[in-house]
């Protein structure tokens, strides 16, 4: 029987992790392995071990920044070592619908989509009401993000732009993970590593598939737009992406930084901190 592992990485967001764990307990098909990679958060690691049912992997920061790419690779490596045939990578803020694990497992096993990079629709939730989100009522809040394909439950749409891939919720077979090679660990901190992963898949002729029944609900948390506290990481990772692929990612954020005077364009068409 196909073994499915759900891999989550986290730093902070303890309540979000606890509610995701509760949502996974309601899955029509529970994962065979749950892997939590904790980035420099010993309290969360203790809480997760005490709750049981989760394999906890710990890792440190990288020069003060969250090692998102390395953490995902560590989680996948642990899942593969424990015999996983299908990897589901789920952001700590995401609550899986009851059918998410099952839908990803089915798509990863189907002849038409098992060689595809699988993504499901994600709904961004409003702030939680008093008492928190009601897991039984999530389906009534289903309004997938309009920038990504969102087929209805039961449908799968094959193809589409790899630029629309995001790492909030995706799945693939163990063999395909090995073929892609995981995330490029030179990306450190926020931004770029997921687009690089998708472009690597595209360079290997791995198409996208959008799985309508693999729905997730992103728990609300405050955000910056543009994410100014991640400016240096975005510049560094954007330059790395340009070196690898000849194009700058995250252009919307970078151009917003230019408009705010935080970043300037270079003569070669790149970006750097203003006055640097």
From TrEMBL:
Belongs to the glycosyltransferase 2 family. Pfam families: Glyco_transf_7C (PF02709). Residues 169-198 form the Galactosyltransferase C-terminal domain. The keyword rRNA processing does not apply. InterPro entries: Galactosyl_T_C, Nucleotide-diphossugar_trans. It comes from the Bacteria. Pathway: Cell wall biogenesis; cell wall polysaccharide biosynthesis. Keywords: Glycosyltransferase, Transferase. This is Glycosyltransferase. The keyword Transmembrane does not apply. It comes from Agrococcus citreus. SUPFAM superfamilies: Nucleotide-diphospho-sugar transferases. PANTHER family: GALACTOFURANOSYLTRANSFERASE GLFT2, RHAMNOSYLTRANSFERASE WBBL.
């Amino acid at each position: 029987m196909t073994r499915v592992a759900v891999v989550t990485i986290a730093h902070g967001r303890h309540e979000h992790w606890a509610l995701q764990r509760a949502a996974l307990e309601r899955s029509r098909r529970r994962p065979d392995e749950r892997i939590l990679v904790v980035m420099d958060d010993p309290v969360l690691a203790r809480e997760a071990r005490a709750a049981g049912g989760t394999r906890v992997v710990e890792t440190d920061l990288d020069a003060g920044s969250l090692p998102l790419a390395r953490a995902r690779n560590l989680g996948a490596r642990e899942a593969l070592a424990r015999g996983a045939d299908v990897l589901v990578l789920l952001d700590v803020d995401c609550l899986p619908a009851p059918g998410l694990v099952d839908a990803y497992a089915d798509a990863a096993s189907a002849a038409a989509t098992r060689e595809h990079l699988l993504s499901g629709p994600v709904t961004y939730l409003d702030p939680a009401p008093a008492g928190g989100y009601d897991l039984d009522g999530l389906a009534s809040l289903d309004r997938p993000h309009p920038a990504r394909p969102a087929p209805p439950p039961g449908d799968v749409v094959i193809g589409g732009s790899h630029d629309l891939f995001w790492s909030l919720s995706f799945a693939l077979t163990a063999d395909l993970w090995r073929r892609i090679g995981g995330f490029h660990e030179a990306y450190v901190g926020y931004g770029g590593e997921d687009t690089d992963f998708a472009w690597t898949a595209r360079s290997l002729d791995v198409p996208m598939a959008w799985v309508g029944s693999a729905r997730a609900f992103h728990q609300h948390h405050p955000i910056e737009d543009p994410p100014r506290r991640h400016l240096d990481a975005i510049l560094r990772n954007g330059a790395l992406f340009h070196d690898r692929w000849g194009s700058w990612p995250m252009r919307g954020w970078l151009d917003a930084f230019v408009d705010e005077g935080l970043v300037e364009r270079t003569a070669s068409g790149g970006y750097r901190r203003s006055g640097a």
